[in-house]
Design a protein that fits this description.
Length: 85
């Protein structure tokens, strides 16, 4: 989830300086969904997808999670990725 700054910072830090530079470049392009090579992480790519919801309303939370997951799957299908982990 690219809108969770704490989660994003931890992943980018673990992935290394290449990923940090690529992430900053993507942000400057104002991309909402994008992927970057995995850097020092054991994955091939990192997919950054924004997410937000009002956690106090369970139906809205469910809908926003559905949309978040659907965005990731759609991106993977469009890119012809074979796995999502």
């Amino acid at each position: 989830c690219s809108t969770s700054q704490i989660l994003c910072d931890k992943i980018i830090s673990a992935a290394g300086s290449y990923v940090k530079t690529a992430y900053d470049q993507q942000l400057s392009r104002d991309s909402s969904v994008f992927e970057i090579q995995g850097g020092n992480l054991p994955c091939k790519k990192i997919l950054f997808v924004p997410w937000s919801s009002d956690i106090y309303y369970s139906q809205m939370l469910k809908q926003s999670i559905d949309k978040f997951v659907a965005s990731a799957i759609t991106h993977a299908v469009d890119k012809k990725d074979k796995t999502i982990g």
